[in-house]
């Protein structure tokens, strides 16, 4: 199902590339955009995870550097019946986390320094279980590709002002139409991100709660992260807004970005769903935490 969603997303993004190329430069521009789209899709599949980690300055850590955190991820991965992912640390005071990678065998989870400093060990377990749920659901491929191609669409639209505006006869829009395209094309990509993120987060919340065995650990973590995201700026996320949908909580809400086009469901609704799940799991045999 997730591979089908990935294929549909790539097809939609490719179509948007073609449309932007045609509107900027006619049939010649569409042909160039098609080649760019093919290259971008191939690059995103094999390299987007590394690119996103590099964008946020993520540094891979070992068990020796952070034994408690590394060991926690290892226990959660074992409970989720997943291969051990690579573990990364992001030097940001805002508490947040994301997962990436094209499949469980090539997955990585990343947490900010703020997450480890501000949350309890139980809350960190809930967050990392949520990220491993994305890996298990194979959401990470579509999340990563979405981030890469959304950024590429924005870049292509910006190029349109230089290569498609003015007196270019191949451009059916003219300068005013090109300027409108610069605004509308990134918005279209944003809508795709929103549609994906809003549906996948609820699923990952539920599976993450089942992996760690304590839905309220994740509910408590979401409340803390949401409050902090409005107070603590994530500088690298602000510079790379196309990756915002990958985080467990929107990292852009700390400065300059409102919730008009939020990539995440309402946090209060997510917490309410987790509370309901906790009531269902209460007293169920085998509902336990990740600790040995």
Automatic annotation (TrEMBL):
Where would I find the Peptidase M48 domain in this sequence? 72-277
Q: What is its main location?
A: membrane
Quote the catalytic residue positions.
Answer: 131
Could you give a GO molecular-function term held by this entry? zinc ion binding
Q: How is the cofactor bound?
A: Binds 1 zinc ion per subunit.
Enzyme class name: hydrolase
Keywords attached to this entry:
Cell membrane, Hydrolase, Membrane, Metal-binding, Metalloprotease, Protease, Transmembrane, Transmembrane helix, Zinc
Q: Which domain of life is it from?
A: Bacteria
User: What protein name applies here?
Assistant: Protease HtpX homolog
Q: Which organism is it from?
A: Futiania mangrovi
**This protein's encoding gene:** htpX
């Amino acid at each position: 199902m997730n591979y089908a969603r990935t294929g549909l997303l790539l097809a939609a993004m490719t179509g948007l590339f073609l449309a932007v190329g045609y509107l900027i430069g006619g049939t010649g521009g569409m042909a160039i955009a098609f080649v760019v789209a093919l290259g971008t899709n191939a690059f995103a599949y094999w390299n987007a995870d590394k690119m996103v980690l590099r964008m946020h300055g993520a540094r891979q850590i070992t068990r020796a550097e952070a034994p408690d955190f590394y060991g926690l991820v290892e226990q959660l991965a074992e409970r989720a019946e997943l291969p051990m992912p690579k573990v990364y640390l992001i030097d940001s005071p805002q508490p947040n986390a994301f997962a990436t990678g094209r499949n469980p065998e090539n997955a990585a989870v990343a947490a900010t320094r703020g997450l480890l400093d501000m949350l309890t060990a139980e809350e960190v377990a809930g967050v990392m279980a949520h990220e491993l749920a994305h890996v298990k659901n194979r959401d990470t491929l579509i999340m990563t590709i979405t981030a890469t191609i959304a950024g590429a669409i924005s870049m292509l639209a910006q190029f349109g002002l230089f290569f498609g505006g003015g007196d270019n006869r191949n451009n059916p829009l003219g300068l005013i139409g090109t300027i409108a395209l610069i605004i509308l094309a990134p918005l279209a990509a944003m809508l795709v991100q929103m549609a994906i993120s809003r549906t996948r987060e609820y699923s990952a919340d539920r599976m993450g709660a089942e992996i760690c065995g304590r839905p309220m650990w994740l509910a408590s973590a979401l409340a803390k992260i949401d409050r902090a995201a409005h107070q603590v700026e994530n500088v690298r996320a602000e510079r790379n807004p196309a990756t915002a949908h990958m985080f467990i909580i929107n990292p852009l809400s700390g400065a300059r970005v409102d919730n008009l086009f939020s990539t995440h469901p309402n946090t209060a609704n997510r917490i309410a769903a987790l509370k309901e799940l906790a009531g269902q799991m209460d007293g169920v045999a085998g509902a336990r935490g990740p600790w040995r």
